[in-house]
Amino acid sequence: MSQQIVDTNNAATTPHERRHRVVLVHPSAGINWSGGSEIFAIELTKRLSAYFDVELLSGSDCGSFCHPTGGISRVQAYSAVRHPLIASLVHRFATHPEIVIEHLTNFLPCAFHLLRRRADVIFPCNDYGGLGMAAFVRALIGTPILFTEHVGLMGDGRSLKRNLRFQPDRLVVFSQAMADFVHSQKPKQVVNVIPNGVDLDQFTPLGGAIDFNLVKPIILCVASLKRNSHKRIELAMQAVARLPHASLLLCGDGCDRSYFQSLGDKLLSTQRFAICTFPYERMPEIYRSADVFTLPSIDEPFGLAYIEAMASGLPVVATDDEMRRYIVADGGILCDVTNLDIYAAALAKVLDSKTEIQPRLNAMRFSWDAVTLSYRDAILETIAQSKQTY
Asked: Cystine design at 357: which of 40, 162, 294, 315 (Cβ 3.0–4.6 Å)?
């Protein structure tokens, strides 16, 4: 008698029964290791492989599960579209032309791949470009679409409204507020609320750290180095400057790195300020090198860095809004970061009382194990729903 394998997909299968095939799409994955959606795509692909035949259409080789698309990623296009000879021209047509280039050059390679090797579910992770490609494939062969909205309600939900026009078969959002917004726009849209995840074995207080030769205690901020962005890094720099015995470690990279280096040297001095850039796999060491984490962004769809920091044992000081109340909870202090006196006082309070805060315990709510199970169920529901529809 043949051995029967009990598959947690929800039913028993024989060794010869085909596993459901799930294809995730992100043409920057494997190239950009600082972006939340790229890390999300890679981490979820690895974990879903326990339940499905999973493939990631990526920008570069990032594991045995990936298939590089051959198109141009937004990271590769970034410098080209900012060349003085063409910058003024391309920016007339798009605010972020590098993203448009990624979407256009990866559309056909991804579509042809999915038409040649049919999937049971297409899971685009690169916003409207991947959604448009998936909708094209669905129109031809009926493959259902599962989509996670990473931009959320930023800009009054402008991106979310646009993405709803593609009518994904199932939409995943990070909060109930986002789900309520979706239903106010599209009452019949199928929605699951699933948070982002963190690897609690990778991001932990235990392990090596890096000596940055800064005055201690050290306050860490992780963000892309771009002026006038929603991250509002300048607020963190100005707040830490009001704490004479603390340093700011800024981890990230971007087109305005020299600007932030100059500002940090002016506000804090080289003994109390440094910028570092490390590959993603070394981020646990970065978090363990600090005492407090802060990111004063004006809006965050979720904020992966917050849960990575808390999982690493760092209390958080951040903007007081609904999403961060949900994420940070009792893992730190939320405040009006635009008031520098209040912001600096919150940082000082956390530094003085951080032993009373248990950020690691709070971060355990976002374990990748639990998040993956929720996505497994969402995928199975999407497949079942598709079989009833088509």
From this structure: 315
Q: Do 281 and 209 contact (CB within 8 A), yes or no?
A: no
Residue 265: how many other CB atoms lie within 10 Å: 13
Cis geometry, peptide bond prior to residue 109 (ω within 30 degrees of 0): no
Q: Which amino acid is at 140?
A: L
d(C-alpha 163, C-alpha 131), whole Å: 7
Span 312-365, pLDDT tens digits: 999 999 999 888 898 998 899 999 999 999 999 999 999 987 556 789 999 999
Q: Which amino acid is at 345?
A: A
Q: Are 15 and 171 in contact (CB under 8 A)?
A: no
Q: Are 5-197+367-389 and 218-366 the same fold in CATH?
A: yes
236/213 Cα distance (integer angstroms): 20
Q: How far apart are CA 236 and CA 338, in angstroms?
A: 10
Fold of the domain built from segment(s) 218-366: Rossmann fold (3.40.50)
Q: For residue 67, how many C-alpha atoms fall within 13 Å in the half-sphere facing its CB? A: 16
Torsion angles phi and psi, residue 121, rounded to 5: -145, 135
**Length of the chain (residues):** 390
C-alpha distances out from residue 270 to 65, 158, 237, 263, 295, Å: 43, 41, 13, 11, 21
Report domain 5-197+367-389's class: alpha beta
What letter does residue 196 receive in the DSSP assignment?
-
Q: Write the pLDDT tens digit of every residue in 167-199.
A: 999 999 988 888 999 999 999 999 999 998 899
Cα–Cα distances (Å) from 186 to 77, 130, 161, 166, 346, in that order, read 34, 20, 9, 12, 40
Provide the pLDDT confidence category of residue 102 given band limits of 50, 70 and 90: confident
Q: How far is CA 190 from CA 167, 183, 321, in A?
A: 10, 9, 26
Q: Evaluate whether 244 touches 267 at the Cβ level (below 8 Å).
A: no
Cα 342 to Cα 76, 240, 309, 317, 335, distances in angstroms:
40, 12, 22, 11, 7
Domain boundaries, the chain: 5-197+367-389, 218-366
